[in-house]
Amino acid sequence: METKVLPYYQKKHKHYGYDYRSRDSRYLVKEYTSKSSSSKRVTSASAATGQSASISPCAKRSCQHVVDEIPEYTMPPFRIRKGEEHQHKAKAQTFLYGTKLWAMEEEIARLKRSTHEHVEMMALKRMEEERSAVQRHVREDSICRAPEFLVRLRSHTVWENSFVKLCCTVQGFPTPLVRWYKDDVYIDQTSQPGKYRMESYYGVHSLEINRCTSSDTAQYSVLAYNIHGESTSNAALIVKRFRGDEEPYHSVLLPVSLPLLSAAVFTHIDIQYSEKFGVNFGTEGETMILSCRMILTPNIRLLQPEVVWYRDEVEVKKSKWAAMQYRDCNAILTLPHLNKDDEGLYTLRLITRGGISQHSAYLFVRDAEAPVVGAPGAPMDVTYYDANKDYVILTWKPPNVTKESPVIGYFVDRCEAGTDNWIQCNDAPVKVCKYPVTGLFEGRSYIFRVRAVNKSGISKPSRVTDAVTALDPADLARLQTIYFDERRQIVICQDDLEGDVKFPGQPTNVHAAETSKNYIVLSWDPPDPRGRDPLKYYIEKTMAGSTSWQRVNLEIAARSPRFAIFDLAEGKSYEFRVYAVNKFGMSQPSVSTGPVVVQERIAIPSPPSAVRCARNTKHSVVVHWLASKNASELMGYYIDSCLVGTNDWQPCNHKPVKYTRFVVHGLKTGLKYIFRVKAVNAVGMSEMSEESDSIIVQAALTGPSSPYGITLLNCTNDSMTLGWKLPRFTGGSDVIGYYMDHREVTDLHWHESNIKAITGTVYKIENLKEGGFYEFKVSAMNLGGVGVPSESSRAFKCEAWTMPEPGPTHDLTFCEVRNHSLVILWKPPIYTGSSAVTGYMVDVCEVGSEEWRSVTEKAVTTRYLKVTKLEEGKSYTFRVSAVNAAGPGKASEPSEPVFIQARPGTKEITTGVDAEGNIYMRFECHEMTDASQFTWGMAYEEITDFSKVHIETEGEISKLIFKHLDTSDLGTYSVAVSDTDGISSSFVFEKEEMERLMALSHAIRHPTIPLKSELAYEVFDKGQVRFWLQTETVSANAHCKFIVNDFELTDTKDHKITFDKSTGMIEMVMEQFTSKNEGTYTVQIEDGKAKNQSSLVLIGDTFKAALAEAEFQRKEFLRKQGPHFAEYMHWHVTEDCEVELVCKVANTKKETTFAWYKDFVTVVAEEPPNAQTGECKLYISEFSKKNMGEYKMTLKDDKGQDITVLEVAGKVYEEIVQEISRVSGQSASQLKIKCTPEGIRIQSFLKYYMEDMKVFWYHKDSKIASSEKMRIGGSSEQVWMQICEPTEREKGKYTMEIFDGKTSYKRNLDLSGDVYSEAFTEFQRLKAAAFAEKNRGKVIGGLPDVVTIMEGKTLSLTSTVFGDPTPEVTWLKNDKDLELNDHHSATLEQGKYACLTIKGVTTDDSGKYGINVRNKYGGETIDVTVSVYKHGEEIPVVKRGAQKAPEQPKAQPKAPPKVEPPKAAKPAEQPKDSKFGRRK
Q: How many helices (H) and strands (E) would you count in the chain?
């Protein structure tokens, strides 16, 4: 047996794809690779004993293996070619087991022959299986047929509480599935468990109904369907109720006691959809979720249906573009990133053991916004085929173009899988939707995308393809596995069976696989045998009829038997031939292809024709057309729509459809559209088809549902008058008539009761037999045809009515069902009895009870009644009896049960007034169907007289508009919506509501012009006065009048009047405003019927103020003709707490002089005026009281002069201080502690501090005043409070407050606990250190830095010392203690005058002398340099320097020195190191 395995380079390549393999190959590869490693060891050991390397038969090169590594497969060394036979024999002579190996080689040769035979047998077997499959498919096609009923359903009449079984027999292929319906409603077994039982055995299908009741009387139908069609069979079931005068149950062969129901046997899972996904519209890049919720019967956890999603009948696989989920009877398909590839018809199929249930809806995907305005949409469905080692062909579908310019070509991009480096494959746009991509690297995986180009720009890229690996599929076919037994196998390559082939043979079957006007793709078969070495190919071309061959691929040889040739002349004929090359040399050229013409293989399709459209729903239209006559390799059709009269064509689909019928969704109801179609293939798009006829978007017409509630209203000896209720659904148009059939109970055949359609819901049928029992059924008719007939009525006896009481009412209908009430309506009886009807009685009965109770105490005179005090969630039946002088008559037939509960989102009638003053009633319904209509009524009678009202309906909103409203229009108004589940409402129109609406209507019809602003005035900079007002929007016919003191002003030079009607601005400008203009100003406005006016009184002080302002502005205008201040001087505090005096000048020039003054003293500003902005600034840093005074700035040139003054004093000074306080308060840091020898200081740093700032300190919320104990102060950047000699009383919270006149800025510190302890300890240390510094030993003065003296004289060094206690004095020479003797003597007088005397100084006395003064608190050393010169020598010049200050002793942190009391008994010990405290 043989199989196929993968080359090692395919297995180890991380991007390798398995797409091109067949399923059989995958299985064999998996079976081979799953073999145990032990078998591999046995094979490798027997093949290469003692060797560490083996030769891979399929890689064309040696592959080294580590000894301990187990290779995927190895080639035994006895597979030796003829060229190596002598070398192998020489090695075999030295081999220990040579004889056994030769025997094995003979066995392998025998196995090779048997393998060839086995392969041929397998090929014959496959051919036979394929032939059988074709024949089986032909046989199945010949027997395929739609479902057909061999035995149809039969109608039944049974007694109540009995059992009935409906049966039928169906045949068809494939086996049809069936569904059962009751009055066109699907029968759900879960709705009433045990009620229904459905069975299917070998084409026989049955429906069992247990314990029949009157509600089971209906028309039952069974629908059989398969993929070839469907068929329906109907039957009626009549359930009769036992009455007293009839026989009991057991007299009609029914058992007295019914048997128990048998156990439920479920033949299949019934599926009902509670929520379905509908038609959806998305945009590229969005996320779309399609979901279906269903009810399973039975819902068994281990028998859940298989959920499969399809798009255009192709299964949707799970990928990064689609995610499927099924949980809790909810199937969800998530498309995380929409592309136009995702557009199509989506189908959810639920596969169970009993059959298949499915639901479908279309998903439309619009183009995303283009990166460039006018650029086309992205291409779609990019696919690849014919992949090889260095070559792959891509195809795609073009985008639909309506408004954009046509597509002129496409760019193809490639990217190596796992990277983001996209490379454009073609330099110039390719014009067809197909392109061969060359230059791929063998073994690597690639992804591709395409972009469309037009004259406006480049589109967004298409969705990327799946990864494709550049490999030759023929390599896999050349690998075979030979099995010796269960444990031994050998993998060989076809190359090993071809013998010793060095030079390659000629390629064969060279032909043009693809032709285009841009390129030609050559294809050929490799040489056979091809040899072991890798092959390359070179292609040559020549013009047809020429013998001059030209090499096509000079630089890069083709590695696969495919090659795309570009740069050919369109329309020319070429011939091609191919050379095969390996390392040994080049083959002979192949046979020429013969002339190949460079032209498109297919042509642009012809346009479709006969575009027709038909109504579908209120938002969709069905478009049909005839297919293109010439359409090679058609991709599909694009459909466009256009509103009539707009010429605005919009795409209906964004992905081509291949069928010739398409439902266009997303249209607007009531509008008129036209359509056109174009065909698409790889070459391009056809011309547009002819436009279709226009169509108005409306719902399609269907037949009405069946009438119901057939009632006998009157009866004579030979006639009956019957009534019935309107169909619940009209089918999209009004019911225009009814047809009635009748039969005697004993007759099986129905007879027509009328030839001409009945226009009402009451009909009198004559020529009946007296005493006979008759059944009736009624069918409704509309423009769509005759609907389904009603259920058969109960049997009525034909006998004359003679009772004095009235007959039954009829046509009981219900509306306005709410949580605790409803409205019932009925029609009067046909038979009135012996006297006229005076009223009606209404009875109600709760479902499940047999007790009827009266709703009204007295008879009502109207034919409608609002029934209240009903319980929510319960069902009731009603009946109505007419009353005359003889008493209550026969009650109507009980109504159908009515469930008392308001529908979610129930709307009520509202009233209002529109913009034209029309009074209306309005009702809105969101649950309308395509055939729904609004019906308005007064007193629950349909309004037919439209002399005082008219009705307007648009979409889901209907209005009843009154023409001439008066008291006669008061009453109850109602509205009902047909083809819905009883949606209706009513409104009691009372006098108060009418008066309110009429007042509002009058205000709208006789309006006043609304004003945005009343009449006002303003003064311009030249002293002109402008009077103005502004209205709301007015028409072009509006006009106005200006009246001053009862005198109308006209537009003159002195009074310029303008009226801008676009903005409603009315203004009058008075050039000269003087004392003569005092008075009342009025503006009168008219706009059609609307009027308004506004007045302004300028008298007394108001006029004087306006006149003064006009004079001031006139003077200001004159001032501004020369250099002037645009902004007068004002102050500003910067963030650095500097005060700026700022003003702005205008109309200056270079010659203008600027001057600053303070108290009439010239001040020089730091910055000159800014020539561009005109700003002038004078900076005042560290502002204080000394900066108070009058500041002035002057401007002057030949045009004039101006001055500005600012008095910095009083309130201005306080405001500046407050602003500084604000800036400083915001910048103040948190309170910090600083210890001093005097006490504890609490301080805060801020930008600036001055004495006039309001700074307050608080201790435990008590204000602190400055005292000897609590000292308060500050510096320019600091504010502090000193606690002198702190005690326990000073513990607590401290607050510093800076007040800027409006806001307080507070900083807090809690001086207690560890904080106080640490601060107090530091204070004690610093206090002790200060005391020690004050009382330590120190030299106050007296010693010079340098002393020069002549030899032989006496030197006396005297200094003043201090210390408490009196310090000890030690003299040093050259940093060593000076020994005192007669030559050196020292004295200390009065404890403060220390003297060192040197008698008869010599040169040996020269050096550095020092005095060390020290007590218990410390001390210091002072040095002096002594220079001795001999007699007769020149006195050296000595530079005197200032005496250095003594060094301060370094205090140890947080450890104050111990203070000990002075001891009189023993002086302080002299330290050995006397440099402590020395001044340097």
A: 11, 101
Residues 6+ apart with CB under 8 A from 1009: 1031, 1032, 1034, 1038, 1085, 1087, 1090, 1091, 1092
Burial class (CB in 10 A: 0-12, 13-18, 19+), 97: exposed
DSSP for 156-201? EEEETT--EEEEEEEEEESPPEEEEEETTEE--TTTSTTTEEEEEE
**Using CB atoms within 10 A of its CB, is residue 1367 exposed (0-12), middle (13-18) or buried (19+)?**
buried
Q: Where are the beta strands (DSSP E) in 717-870?
A: 720-725, 737-744, 751-752, 762-765, 773-782, 785-786, 796-797, 810-815, 822-827, 839-846, 853-854, 864-867
CB 1456 within 8 A of CB 1329: yes
- Given a cut of 70, the residues of the chain with pLDDT beneath it are 1-101, 134-144, 242-268, 476-477, 483-488, 494-501, 930, 1437-1480
Q: Using CA atoms in the order 308, 311, 317, 319, what is the torsion angle rounded to 10 degrees?
A: -130
Q: 632 near 643, Cβ under 8 Å? A: no
Q: Residue 72: its pLDDT value, please?
A: 34
What is the full DSSP assignment across 89-151?
A: HHHHHT-TTHHHHHHHHHHHHHHHHHHHHHHHHHHHHHHHHHHHHHHHHHHHHHH-EEEEEEE
Tokens 């319904």 belong to 925
Contact between 382 and 463 (Cβ < 8 Å):
yes
Q: Are 1110 and 1116 in contact (CB under 8 A)?
A: no
Place of tokens 């502690």: 1233
Torsions phi, psi for 551 (to 5 deg): -70, 130
What's the predicted TM-score (pTM) here? 0.46
CA angle 1364, 1367, 1369 (to 5 degrees): 160
Token pair belonging to 279: 């038609």
Residue holding tokens 């007064």?
938
Tokens matching residue 234:
């109907």
In whole angstroms, give the CA distance from residue 878 to residue 825: 11
Distance of alpha carbon 1333 from alpha carbon 1419, whole angstroms: 9
Contacts of 1258 (CB under 8 A, 6+ apart): 1264, 1294, 1295, 1296, 1297
Pairing of strands 1346-1350, 1418-1429: parallel
The pLDDT value given to residue 118: 81
Position 1095: which residue type? S
Dmax (CA) for the chain in angstroms is 184
Residue 143, Cβ density class (10 Å: 0-12 exposed, 13-18 middle, ≥19 buried): exposed
CB distance 665 to 638 below 8 Å: no
Q: State how far the Cα of 764 lies from the Cα of 754, in Å rounded to an integer.
A: 10
Torsion, Cα 335 340 342 343, to 10 degrees, reads 120
Sheet-wide strand order for 156-159 = 156-159, 229-240, 218-226, 177-182, 185-186
1024: tokens are 């002109």
Give the DSSP H/E element, type plus range, for residue 323. strand 323-327
Q: Are 1071 and 1027 within 8 A, CB to CB?
A: no
pLDDT 10s digits, 606-615: 999 999 998 8
C-alpha closest to that of 1254 among 1209, 1223, 1221, 1287: 1221
Cis, peptide link before residue 529, omega less than 30° from 0: yes
Q: How much helix, strand and coil, in percent to the nearest 5, is found in the chain?
A: 15, 40, 45
Q: What does residue 1066 show for φ and ψ, rounded to 5 degrees?
A: -115, 130
Q: What tokens does 1227 get?
A: 């910048």
Contact 370, 424 (CB under 8 A): no
Per residue in 1011-1040, pLDDT tens?
999 999 999 888 889 999 999 888 888 989
